Amino acid sequence: MSYSVLHVVHLLAAIFFIGTLFFEVMILGRIRQQIGEQTMPLVERAVGARSRVVLHWVVLFVYGAGIGLAWYHRQALADPFASSFATQLTLKIVLAIGVFFTFGLVAILLRKGLMTPARYRALHWAILLQMIGIVLLAKGMFYLHW
């Protein structure tokens, strides 16, 4: 697959992933007072169930394309401190691994019935913040040279 196709797939999947988390954290997380305490758990469960189905595919595309793109930059990754590009790409990959494990923790806690609303919000905030870091690094890789 060409670099350009991988790049577009990666960017679109990242937009979908970040957009979903942004919606959950910044919009859905703030409407509790308007909807009420009885209705909100139903809304959260329904949105969570649907987003998990969609996000599984989105995660597959974002990470699959990301691995393909990393393969194109394997020479830079061989020496992660040789250039600002390589360092930022390495940090981006480390954050992406962090997102993957945090996302996995959400799934484990949900399956075991250990997820609380507070944990859910905290973990979604953590994922969103890591993803914002990834976006900033992605932009900086091509424009920020130390």
Describe this entry's structure for a reader.
There is one protein chain. This protein is mostly helical. 84% of the residues lie in helices and 0% in strands. The chain contains six helices and no strands. The longest helix has 33 residues, at 40-72. The two termini are 31 Å apart. Keywords: Membrane, Transmembrane, Transmembrane helix. InterPro entries: DUF474. This is Integral membrane protein.
How do the SSEs run, as a string of H and E? HHHHHH
Q: Describe the global form.
A: elongated
Tally of contiguous helical segments:
6
**Poorly predicted regions:** none
Percent helix? over 70%
Distance between the termini: 31 Å
Number of strands: 0
Q: Assign the structural class, choosing from mainly alpha, mainly beta, alpha/beta, alpha+beta, or little secondary structure.
A: mainly alpha
Sheet of most strands: none
Mean pLDDT: 91
Give the strand content: under 5%
Q: C-alpha Rg, in Å?
A: 17 Å
Outline of this structure?
Keywords: Membrane, Transmembrane, Transmembrane helix. The protein has 146 residues and is an all-alpha fold. It is 84% helix and 0% strand.
